[in-house]
Write a structure and sequence with these properties.
The chain is mainly β and about 325 residues long. Helix content is about 5%, strand content about 40%. The chain has 1 helix and 20 strands. A hairpin with an 8-residue loop joins strand 17 and strand 18. The N terminus is likely disordered.
Length: about 325
Amino acid sequence: MSDKNLADREEMITVSLVGAALAGMLTILVSCGDTDGGDPTPDPPAADDAPAVVTPPPAATGAPKPVQQPLEGDPRASLLLAHAWFYKDAEGRPKPGPARLDIWRETDGAWGYTRLEDADSNVFHKAMPYDGGILTIGAEGANLKKWTFADGKWTGELLWTQSWGGKYNRLRDVEIGDVDHDGKDEFVIATHDAGVVAVINPPEGDGEAEAIEMDQKADTFVHEIEIGDVDGDGKVEFFATPTDRNTAKGSQGGMMVMYRWNGPATSAAWSTRWAIPTPRRSWPPTSTATASPSCSRCSRPRPTRPRSSSLSRSGSTSSRRTAPSSRR
């Protein structure tokens, strides 16, 4: 089996725990009962009785119908557990099921979960409390959604979605912070397969989200985003970790890159000050598109010394603003 096929198998087939978040402030998790008039969904089982996998009944197409169980009881601290799972099609082949999130809560000394699934993606790579609901990022498709529970049912609001033309489109990590120093928080998102780092301005009121995409390069995988003020100037920066494709025969090349906001009055609104390479095969990436504002990546920096803010480059990286997504 080739390295590429092994990597695809690792990315798409490994069944594992994807993420968990302690959500003590998630007070939206209150049931209002079943108002649809149908058969009520049974209470989530306690921990001792909870099965490892609950397979929902098949839909008309043969794919499992997403489960969206109602929340019961008063607001309380919760654990958000996102994980991948698989079912077998009519020919016995494993297929990824809908993205799955289990919301674990303690009631009278026993733990049980409420299950939420989304057929628009096959895994949630992250779930976190956000603005009275739950923020999720999806993989295949690449969907940023906000989930709320009211009147006995779940509603998933699509904040942003994108396709970069490759085999897969996946959101891999998200962090929230005021990275452009406008007094409002943004979503900073890492993606797989196309190397994109995106800064999303959340929608306000009935408006739409705005996305600034940077550093697109095919077959590039950004794994993590971290936000913090590392130079003590009172303004946060953020870090991303792009790499080459995984390989079974060694270590793939990659970098740790810091992005900082230079302000709308500058010629380059986003720049990178430090770029720390690991052993690599094809870094730094080259640009494939240009737009304003631009993002600049350091070229072959020394890993032991920060670069100055005056960057030297061997070809610029790219940034683009994407049109707002239709919200559901």
